[in-house]
Design goal:
mainly beta, YHYH domain-containing protein, YHYH_dom
């Protein structure tokens, strides 16, 4: 199995940044992985890759991680449930996308496969998961149900057959609901030990890796592919809508789980969009506190602090300051309040050239 998710890491100044905003069979999964034109989140173009498969994740220089860091803040691995790690975290030599040669935490997790769904519904009368539709009729974040399928049909996408069945995981050029199976995999991240701020932020493109979730060690990624334009690869066709479970995650065609929402905050997103047909029951919910780390090493927090949205955030929805977890202060991000997807659209720091490997 070979899969690469490339980084289109264009550097933009804050003024240039955009506004914030069936478990199928293994055989079908492998076919879908090769036919990335119909993928839920695959791509094959762009600049430097930040995701690959295989075992090469850093140099041979490795040391066990120690408690704490040079600035007095805790080390990144300390924030995770230690039972999530497949092997003990280490520190390895790594190169960042700003050309810096430094050290990174190497942390590995088993692929998450416990979602109870739902994802794609079988018929137009069934209730599925959630998705983002960007067509002209009834666009937005919504439940996968009859109103969505009728909107897609009105926009020219043949996704419902004469018996009311929903097309799933179709070939390139077909309109379908995408619902990819997950596999038994190990995901390994390289995250800078000492984060380095960039002169200008890096925009997070569609389906680009954003960071790692604290709840399960799975990737946090940028927006899912456009239904109208398809995934950002040459020759891509539109008409496919990726299905997300109510907590905001799904499987990639390469078999690994990833999130398009911060899962711990997903119920508040559903509530903001008046979604009542489904709810996030797999992941404990909260509106404040640490939820993950961006691939540049800076922490990601839930949208609220003391019940309100911080009002002094930059273009990447972050700021420098003291938090409960980092008493010496650190730059940190906040998930975007009541938006879907709710991850910031840029990062302020440099990340490893090969942030994520999958095997």
């Amino acid at each position: 199995m070979v899969h690469e998710l490339h980084t289109w890491g264009s550097s933009l100044s804050p003024k240039q940044l955009p506004p914030m905003p069936d478990r199928s069979s293994p055989l079908l999964l492998l076919v879908s992985s090769l036919l990335l034109l119909s993928s839920a989140c695959g791509d094959s173009s762009g600049a430097e890759a930040d995701t690959t498969t295989g075992s090469e994740t850093g140099s041979e220089t490795e040391t066990e991680t120690e408690t704490g860091s040079a600035d007095g803040n805790p080390s990144l691995p300390e924030f995770f449930d230690q039972d999530l790690f497949t092997v003990s975290p280490t520190v390895v030599d790594c190169e960042l996308d700003n050309g810096s040669n430094t050290q990174c935490y190497q942390i590995s997790f088993s692929n998450y496969q416990d979602s109870s769904g739902p994802f794609c519904p079988e018929t137009i009368d069934d209730i599925g998961g959630v998705g983002v539709y960007d067509g002209p009729t009834n666009p937005g974040f919504q439940v996968l149900k009859d109103t969505l399928w009728n909107a897609m049909e009105a926009d020219g996408y043949d996704i419902v057959d004469d018996e009311g069945n929903i097309a799933m995981n179709g070939m390139p050029g077909d309109s379908s609901c995408l619902n990819m199976a997950t596999m038994d995999l190990t995901l390994t991240f390289l995250i800078p030990v000492d984060p380095e701020l960039l002169d200008t932020p890096n925009e997070i493109e569609i389906v680009e890796l954003y960071g790692v979730s604290l709840i399960d060690g799975m990737p946090l990624t940028g927006h899912p592919p456009s239904v109208v334009d398809g995934p950002p690869i040459p020759g891509a066709a539109g008409g496919n809508i990726p299905s997300l479970d109510p907590c905001g995650g799904h499987g990639d065609p390469a078999g690994y789980w990833h999130w398009h929402l911060t899962a711990e905050n997903s119920q508040s997103v559903l509530d903001a969009f008046d979604i009542t047909e489904v709810s996030c029951t797999d992941i404990p919910q909260k509106t404040e506190g640490l939820v993950g780390f961006a691939k540049d090493g800076y922490p990601i927090y839930s949208p609220l602090v003391d019940g309100t949205v911080p009002d002094d955030l930059d273009a990447c929805n972050g700021k420098f300051g003291v938090t409960e977890d980092f008493p010496d202060g650190i730059y940190h991000y906040y998930a975007v309040h009541e938006e879907a997807p709710n991850l910031p659209t840029c990062i302020m720091g440099a990340s490893a050239l090969m942030t994520l490997s999958i095997e």
